[in-house]
Amino acid sequence: MSEINVTPLVDVMLVLLIVFMVAAPLMTVGVPIDLPKTDAKPLNSQVEPLSVSIRPDGSIYLMEQAMTMPELTQKLAALYGVDPDKEIRVRGDLAATYGPIAEVLGAINNAGFKKIGLETLPGAGAAPAAPAPAPAQTPGLTEPGQN
Questions:
Q1: What is the DSSP string of 52-98?
Q2: Distances (CA, A) of 55 to 39, 106, 132
Q3: How many whole angstroms separate alpha carbon 122 and alpha carbon 83?
Q4: For residues 120 and 37, is the Cβ–Cβ distance under 8 A?
Q5: How confident is the model over 14-55, as pLDDT tens digits?
Q6: 79-95 pLDDT, tens per residue?
């Protein structure tokens, strides 16, 4: 009798499935940052973009490597020379101040990159603005054009 025994194949596939399920969340950029939530649609990118992260204390990371502002500027200039069309995503922590984020955006722009994005989490953004109150009516005055 010649039969194909599929039990070992199923065992291997289940083990691989478990390995990939555990490893997939670990494949994201490793700098822990609390990103803001917005209602923006996700971008579909075919290539892996560069990631610049800014932590609440102002420390800067290019991918997972910590660097100072001058180091980041030099590295970005070198990367622009290799691939000027590379996309860069800035991951600013929700608690980070605007100053370091603005400095990083300026350094990326000065290096020459044109494809710059701010990374956020999908979800509810800021609360919708309250409707503008109706203008107050002063007794005895009329709208223009009315008598």
A1: EEE-TT--EEETTEEE-HHHHHHHHHHHHHH-TT--EEEEE-TTS-H
A2: 22, 17, 36
A3: 29
A4: yes
A5: 999 999 888 876 666 566 666 677 776 666 666 777 888 888
A6: 888 888 888 888 888 88
Q: Is the pTM of this model over 0.85?
A: no
Is-contact 109 116, C-beta < 8 A?
Answer: yes
Kindly state the tokens that stand for 62. 């290019």
| Total residues belonging to the chain | 147
Q: Which residues pair with 66 in a beta bridge?
A: 61
Query: In the numeric block, which tokens belong to residue 32?
Result: 């822990």
- The CA-atom distances, in angstroms, between 9 and each of 4, 15, 18, 35 are 10, 10, 14, 41
Question: Minimal CA–CA distance to 122: which of 48, 46, 43?
Answer: 43
Q: Classify residue 68 by burial, with Cβ atoms within 10 Å: 0-12, 13-18, 19+.
A: exposed
- CA distances to 38, 41, 102, 120 from 126, in Å: 7, 15, 21, 12
